[in-house]
Structures are given as structure tokens and as C-alpha cells.
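Q: I'm writing a short explainer about D-2-hydroxyglutarate dehydrogenase for a general audience and would like to include a description of its predicted shape. Could you first generate the structure from this sequence?
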Amino acid sequence: MTHPAVIDELMTLVDPGKVLTDAASLEAYGKDWTQHYPPAPSAIVLPKTIEQVQAIVAWANRHRIALVPSGGRTGLSAGAVAANGEVVVAFDYMNQVLAFNAFDRTVVCQPGVVTRQLQQFAEEHGLYYPVDFASSGSSQIGGNIGTNAGGIKVIRYGMTRNWVAGLKVVTGKGELLELNKDLIKNATGYDLRQLFIGAEGTLGFVVEATMRLDRAPRNLTAMVLGTPDFDSIMPVLHAFQGRLDLTAFEFFSDKALAKVMGRGDVPPPFDTDCPFYALLEFEASNEDVANEALATFEHCVEQGWVLDGVMSQSETQLKNLWKLREYISETISHWTPYKNDISVTVSKVPAFLREIDAIVAEHYPDYEVVWYGHIGDGNLHLNILKPDDMSKDAFFASCARVNKWVFEIVERYNGSISAEHGVGMTKRDYLAYSRSPEEIACMKAIKAVFDPNGIMNPGKIFAPE
Ligand code: MLT
Ligand code: ZN
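A: Of course. Here's the predicted structure. Afterward I'll give you a sentence or two in plain language.
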């Protein structure tokens, strides 16, 4: 634990009352949405300016104190968890949209801007911020950049990385760097901006971000389709992608749907029970597009790939269909799930999922397994639910034993052990299944350049040495 005199010094660097050490704050700010590690930070500090962030970093280097950057704390890999006496740096008071350029379609955000705040800002200006996920109401832009957040529209718009025009960062050395200066074209050597995106706060703090916006989509329309088996989902994806520009293509299993139905606040898509469901979305910008979608649906039914389906006819129906997918994560959190967030190239998904499913069925015969994810971009979420009568620690330990087999398959398929949630602490011991020893050595060398004293989020991405 950090010495009280050192915390007193920290208090002089920020506004009065912006260092918190009470038990409730330590508990709230020391964790994210993972339930693996008990939070144990020494203090929480809430800077208001870039200069204050630099002063905090200088203080941390002087006293060799570990800092954990904290956004909306919606992460699912313990990337923002402070379990070892670190000081949490939270951006609740750096949460303003600072500037908007309608011509360049860019918005300058402080790191604490909530994702939905940016989405709404874009909407108010007739534009669109397309990175979206269920936690957009609380996740923050700084955290999204730290994990290169993905979500439900990646098939069309890509990850957060695609929407970052420029960054201001404070490195682990305390230097302020202005990266890429919001340019579209910039061929002046290494693009350091990209290094900070997805770095999980291990290189420094994002203290300002210029985000790009897009044109607003026209008449977004969703379809939910029930399929007779998992293998039918891929030809459905192929058929729709051949005829329409999809903005999303998600899937979930009957078990995932049953959990959401159990809430009682979402209407079922249709009466037919199906083992798997696909949710796709497109811009029905004119009648021809909607007709094309219906014709593709009929083709899929004729082929036996689809058993039943529904297409949204209003904004309310669109939202209700999305709830079937977006509510899954929050709903199953009640069962303390062990979460996997794996990916392969899209064409490999059927064979990959079949192998993983067989391993999981063999090793987790007594656990409920819930599949869902962003199948259109190759990202599958495998969630193992904790039996009610089992302790959390025993459950997580038994799941971790199976990881070896799951991740060996991931490695064989050239996949990723973390598609969008990040490595954090929950996946750090498995990094070598996705990255070579040479790559890991390069990553560590890069960290040493920006953070020579190792004060920035230690123990995240890489296991402590
Ligand atoms: C999702 O796709 O719903 C999110 O990544 C959260 C989760 O995987 O539970
Ligand atoms: Zn996801």
C-alpha cells in the first residue's frame, strides 16, 4: 500500500477533493465488469487537465507507483482492475466534447466522454459515430481506445481504431505527444497513434482524442432468422452479403435467447423454436433494398438454411430485435460466466466452432454453455455459466484448466485469444497462443520506450516477471 505521505503529495497535484481513499470509492473504481479479482487500489485520483495527468505521472515515476487508467470500467478482461495497491486514474472530470469540425467530420473528445454521448453528439449534427455495443451508455472513449473496442457494427465500420483521427497522449515518462494531428494522409514514419490504440493503458494515458464521424445511416432495418443448425448460418451470411451491404451480422444460440426471454421484458422474435439465430441489419434506403432482403430470405428458406424469420417494420421493432442480442451479456452476468472472446477468419468459423464445441462438451459436461457473438467478423463469445451451488473460485479454476485445449485450437486456426475484450489480466497467461515469442519481445521493448519504469498498468497484457 502506498505510504500516506505520498498520497498527501498526490493531493497537492489535483483539485481539492479529487483524491479518494474511502472504502466505497476504492471498491467502485478498483474493478471493471470482470468478477475474477478483488479490487485493492491505494487511492483514486481524478485529474481535470492534461497538466494534472502529467504531474500524476511524474509523481508516480518519482515514487515508483503503479497507475491504472480507468474509464467506464465496463471491460471484460480485468484491464482496468487495480488488485495490487495501484493508484487508479479516472477521467470522470475530463468528459467534455471540446470541438467539432463539420467539414472534416471530426470531434475532439476528452477521454471521459461516454460512448453514447459521442453517438448523440454525432446524431445532433446529422452524423453518425458507428462503434456501438451494449455498454455504450457507460463505456468511455479513452477506454474504447485502450481496448480498440469492437462491438456490433464491425462488419461494416471496423473497430475503434478506424475512427481515431488523432490522439494526445501522456506517456509513462510523462511526455505529452500529439499523434497524427488528425490527418487522413500522413506518411512520416511510424504511426505511434496506432500503438496507443489497444495498448490497454500500458504505454501511457490517452488525454484527448479526435474521433471521426460518418454519414448517418438511412432507415436501418433488422432481420432475425432462425436456423436449423449452426452450419446453416454461414450460407445465410454469404447469401445476404452477396446481395446487400450489411451493417451487422450477429448470432446467438437458443440458450442465449432463453436467458433473455427469462427477463420477461423483450418480445420473442417469432414462435418457431430454433437452435441458432442470426440477426442481420442493413440500410433499407429504398424499396428495392427491402425487396432484395426479402428475396434473399425466401432463398434461404428454400435452401433449408432458415426455419423462420422476422423483419423490423419500425424503429421500435428494430430496437426490440436488437435487444435479443444486446441484452445477452448483461442477462447472463447473473451466472458469473467464464468468458471467452475468440476469433478466426470468417471462412474458418464453422470448422473452428465445431472443434471448440466438442472440447467444451467433453470437458464441461455439467456446465451450461452459451454461444453468441459477431459471427460476421469471425468473433465468437463462448460463455460458460457457473452452477449456482459452486464457488466462484472453484468454477474459474475448473474453466481455466480447459483453456489449454480451447486455445490450442485457436492457435491451430491462426486465431486470436481475444478479439475485442483485450488481454488484461484474464488472458495474459495465454498470450503466447496468439503472439510469437519474438512479437512479445518486441511489444515489451516498445513498452520500455514509453514506460521505462513500468508504472503504466503493470500486469496487464503481460504476466508480471
Ligand atoms: C457482446 O458482444 O455482447 C459483448 O462483447 C459483451 C460480451 O461478450 O458479453
Ligand atoms: Zn462482443
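A: For your explainer, you could say: The radius of gyration is 23 Å.
Q: Perfect, that's easy to follow.
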